[in-house]
């Protein structure tokens, strides 16, 4: 058993911001991350709406945040998966894949996972032409034809990124208007072909070419498009299982319910970032929530609340 003042689960923007403020407040702080620091931010080819950076690659911003977190005095343990939160009176015990930690306060910043289409062929071709990360897998499709599914900022940014690599990029969106920021959507003109009001029904083909079956939601007409790769970017789902198993309240969609100070339903457990029911899923919003959670945890630990 290792003892800490504050255990933060997840090293995305919310977790790293919490780590910075926790350590700077004088708390013995550890940040646990089952993969590499940065969370889904590392998959963003380019971030253009984070204050202070007109343009920055998601990976670069993640690396800067992680360095700042370490420089502040927080310990980051990557490739260590949190598996269970045990409540022991006022103490919380976080069991991981390597050891366990005892602390009076825990911040859950486990983020979200890619939402899947749930259609035939998606799982079969995962890693073999189907991807959820344009930054990771885009270079594999240089000079080829790709399809992007989605209509939000992530889908549009990824489509624009892929347009610099692929021979052609087609974006399929289920509605007649994108959910992405107007400034981003306007950049698609002349670079990306858009198929409106359509959904993917099935992904067929081989390890090479893929045949994607589409249905127009308004006319019911079915069509096919042949591509080399399919990038699915239709949103995320909260990774809240760990907190829910500990008894933390979640809403009907699975998001952790927090108040405006990031308190959860269990005293001493806070949550921040995309895993919470806060409606804005942006890096800047996650950072603000992480800061709030860390300062609230400090007040709780020091008996100031």
The percent of residues in helical segments reads 10-25%
Mean pLDDT across every amino acid position = 96
| Overall number of strands | 19
Distance between the termini: 28 Å
Largest sheet: 5 strands, parallel
Q: Layout of SSEs?
A:
Elements: E1 2-3, E2 6-9, H1 13-24, E3 29-33, H2 58-72, E4 75-78, E5 82-88, E6 91-96, E7 100-103, E8 105-108, E9 112-114, E10 130-131, H3 134-137, E11 145-149, H4 153-163, E12 168-172, H5 182-185, E13 193-195, E14 198-205, E15 210-216, E16 222-227, E17 229-232, E18 236-238, H6 241-245, E19 269-271, H7 283-301
Parallel strand pairs: 1-7, 2-3, 2-8, 3-4, 8-19, 10-17, 11-12, 11-17, 12-13
Antiparallel strand pairs: 5-6, 6-7, 9-18, 14-15, 15-16
Helix pairs in contact: 1-2, 1-7
Characterization of this structure:
The mean pLDDT is 96. Helix 1 packs parallel to helix 7 (283-301). The chain is built from 7 helices and 19 strands. The longest helix has 19 residues, at 283-301. The protein has 305 residues and is α/β, with parallel strands linked by helices. The two termini are 28 Å apart.
Give a quick rundown of the structure.
With 305 residues, this protein is of the alpha/beta class. Helix content is 23%, strand content 28%.
Features:
305 residues; alpha/beta; five-stranded parallel beta sheet; elongated
């Amino acid at each position: 058993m290792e003892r800490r003042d504050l255990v933060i689960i997840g090293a995305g923007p919310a977790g790293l911001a919490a780590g910075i403020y926790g350590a700077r407040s004088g708390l013995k702080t550890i940040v646990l991350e089952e993969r590499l620091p940065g969370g889904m931010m590392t998959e963003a080819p380019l971030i253009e709406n984070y204050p202070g950076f007109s343009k920055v690659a998601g990976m670069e911003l993640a690396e800067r945040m992680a360095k700042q977190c370490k420089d502040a005095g927080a310990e980051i343990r990557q490739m260590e998966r949190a598996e269970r939160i045990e409540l022991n009176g006022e103490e919380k015990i976080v069991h991981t894949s390597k050891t366990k930690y005892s602390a009076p306060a825990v911040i859950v910043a486990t983020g979200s996972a890619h939402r899947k289409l749930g259609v035939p062929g998606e799982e079969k071709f995962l890693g073999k032409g189907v991807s959820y990360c344009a930054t990771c897998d885009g270079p594999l499709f240089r000079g080829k034809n790709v399809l992007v599914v989605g209509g939000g900022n992530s889908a549009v940014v990824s489509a624009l990124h892929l347009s610099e690599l692929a021979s052609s990029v087609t974006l399929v969106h289920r509605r007649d208007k994108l959910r992405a920021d107007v400034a981003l959507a306007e950049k698609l003109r002349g670079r990306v072909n858009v198929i409106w009001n359509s959904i993917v029904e099935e992904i067929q083909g081989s390890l090479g070419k893929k045949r994607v079956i589409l249905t127009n939601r308004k006319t019911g007409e079915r069509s096919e498009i042949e591509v080399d790769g399919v990038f699915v970017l239709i949103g995320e789902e909260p990774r809240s299982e760990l907190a829910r198993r500990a008894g933390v309240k979640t809403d009907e969609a699975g998001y952790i319910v927090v108040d405006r100070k990031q308190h959860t339903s269990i005293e001493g457990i806070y949550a921040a970032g995309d895993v919470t029911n806060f409606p804005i899923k942006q890096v800047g919003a996650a950072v603000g929530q992480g800061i709030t959670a860390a300062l609230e945890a400090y007040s709780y630990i020091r008996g100031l609340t």
